[in-house]
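ingest -> validate -> predict -> emit
validate: passed (alphabet ok, no gaps, 258 aa)
predict: started
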Amino acid sequence: MRKWLLNLLWICILGGSRVLYFWNAGKTVADTYGYFEQAVERAWENGTVSWAGLGDAYIWTLSWLFRLMGDRIELVGVYQLTLQILWLILLFAGASMLLGRRAGFLLSGVLMILPWSMPTIFVVSPENYYMLHFSLFLVILGAFCSKKKNHRVTEMTAAGSENKKMERLPETGSDKAATENKEAGKNKETTQEGQEQLQQAVEKEEGYVITEDGRRVKLFDNPLPLPPKHVKKNMGFDFKVSKDDFDYQVEDRDDFDV
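emit:
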């Protein structure tokens, strides 16, 4: 509720600032680029008119405005004021949905006080009409992204709740039977392995061995004469040997280098 009140207050500020500027500016609407004259001519023409972009669409909206309320240039000023208030509000909404509320406040606030945007109210030109379409595009894009994000969050929440339910569900009869069968199989395998190991140990003690291919073979002593087992011996001498000293002692007066 607080967010909606803040958004509503900001919208009132956007619209009120433009109305106050329009009321106190003391300017007259100028047809600088000839759009007013073209719209007046098209308002009273008969037949189909070809369009060539948003500029022609802007002239077409002016012509219908003149047909309904008369071809007064002051009316165009009110129309320009309405367009500018609308695109400021839509820009705030689109930027908030795409980038967050702070970005929406910042972007719309900067464009609200920008010196370029205010004088366009008193000039018959399609700048505000262009900005209206751009802001509308941002709103559509923001709505699409928000919907996609909410759908993703919903899927993640649903998946998490399903996992929790599966963890909390008690085991059924079939699950218990499967668990018991697995435990019985493991116990049986363990028992068989223990019996095989015990049988192998007994057979080894009796002189039997089990080969790799599963054959049971009994070992016997070799009847052939064998050399005696090697006994390690330490080799030495019966007498002590003095340390060899190969240095020849000479007298001090023997100088061989002279």
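The two ends are 118 Å apart (CA to CA).
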